[in-house]
Amino acid sequence: MYDWVLRMAHHRHALRSLAGVSFAESSFFPIPPDVMMVPMVLARRDQAYLIAGVCTAASVIGGIFGYAIGYFLTEFAHQVLEFFRHNAFEDFTRAYNEYGWAIILAKGLTPIPYKLVTIASGLSHYPLGLFIMLSVITRGARFFIIAALLKRYGAPVQAFIEKRLNLFAWGFLLLLIGGFAAIALL
Fold first, then answer.
1. Residues 6+ apart with CB under 8 A from 45
2. CA count, 13 A, side-chain hemisphere, 122
3. Domain count of the chain?
4. Where would I find the VTT domain in this sequence (predicted)?
């Protein structure tokens, strides 16, 4: 699948394919759209923001589909979690609705599969309008920052991003979790 996504980045229907990959990644597909977006922006730097916009819009729409998956699996998830621990689903829902904004914003920027957040948001019945707004902000920031850096600096930024993105994303996630832990202890 990874090789197919890379090949599609140079195809004449690359923008449509990117939209499809971005949509699918937000709900069920395992490969992030960055794999396709980066070579597309490098090949067409004058279209960097169009590419980022398509990627963002399709990702958010795919996120709504992921939200629907979670929403319609709520009863099933409730039964599964209750099997393991009484009130587990209620605890999850309460915590997610309290901290969901931070989870959505943080996750949208990291390489951790976004589909986990979209489905969890649906499971907890997180407010759909707020979910969409936060998704636009975080997914847009991720894709437009990458596009802007690639447009401005080209291939050296690609190497930097590919080499260190996971490290920075994990570091940010650890800081975020540490911040929540510190707040909880106060």
1. 150, 151, 154
2. 23
3. 1
4. 51-149
| Residue 165 neighbours by CB under 8 Å, 6+ apart | 111
> Can you tell me the distance from the alpha carbon of 96 to that of 105, in angstroms, rounded to the nearest whole number?
13
Domain of residue 111, residue span: 2-185
